[in-house]
Design a protein that fits this description.
With 228 residues, this protein is α/β, with parallel strands linked by helices. The protein has 7 helices and 7 strands. Strands 3-2-1-4-5-6-7 form a 7-stranded parallel sheet, with helices on both faces. Helix 1 (12-22) crosses helix 7 (200-212). It is globular and about 45 Å long. The chain starts with a strand and ends in a 5-residue tail after the last strand.
Length: 228
């Protein structure tokens, strides 16, 4: 059985990914910013799951936070913070937090766990389609998700033969983040050839494929139903 670490595994897609692996008997670590909540969610997911507090926005503490994590076969970096930030109304503090969390934080996690990865291990980064489809207020999100492309290339070179892949979901119809955004969801649905929105379960399925298929490396996979 594999040892799986999911950074940002206490809600949404991260939690569903944890449930997938725990449901198959794997040892899973899920992280969130708050230790008590991470432990509570871990207990809800299953007996083979442990909760650990990790704050990606405070990268100086990541190595210590992960010090007790054992060997890692699968590492998924799912944690994300969304904001609305435009050039005209630029929030420098928010921008620094988001860039730190995703670009510096993700990389620091790989650094912290590097000695616990094996040649058979794999790492999955979460990006998003705002990198290709910016919208008003997406300045930060578009920048950091585009940065994930560079992270895949450089990490794949630096930590080989460990596999590095990234997944870039579009609008996920049943994600709590989009709950209530009826007009937006219908607009996306109308421009999606499948005539339906991607689900969290489908993002999890694609994530597992990237984590488990040993022929996949340096892949940036779009999961959006072919949105036009």
């Amino acid at each position: 059985m594999s040892n799986v670490v999911i950074i940002g595994g206490t809600s949404g897609i991260g939690r569903e990914l944890g449930e997938y692996y725990a449901g198959r008997g794997h040892s899973v670590v899920v992280t969130g910013r708050d230790a008590e909540r991470a432990e509570k969610i871990a207990a809800e997911i299953g007996e083979t799951v442990r909760g650990v507090a990790v704050d990606l926005a405070e990268p100086q503490g990541i190595t210590e936070a992960l010090a007790e994590v054992g060997p890692v076969d699968r590492l998924a970096l799912v944690g994300i913070q969304r904001d609305r930030n435009s050039v005209k109304g630029y929030d420098v503090g928010g921008a620094v937090d988001l860039v730190t969390m995703k670009l510096v934080g993700y990389t620091t996690v790989v650094h912290a766990l590097l000695d616990r990865l094996t040649p058979e291990s794999s790492v999955l980064l979460f990006g998003g389609m705002a990198k290709d489809r910016p919208y008003p207020g997406s300045t930060n999100i578009s920048i950091v998700n585009a940065g994930v492309l560079g992270m895949v290339r450089t990490l794949a070179a630096e930590v080989a033969p460990v596999r590095i892949n990234a997944i870039h979901p579009g609008v996920v119809g049943d994600s709590p983040y989009w709950a209530g955004a009826t007009d937006l969801l219908e607009g996306v649905r109308a421009q999606t050839p499948t005539g339906r929105l991607v689900t969290m379960g489908e993002v999890v399925d694609a994530s597992v494929t990237l984590l488990e298929n040993r022929g996949l490396n340096k892949v940036n996979l779009t999961v959006d139903g072919g949105f036009a």
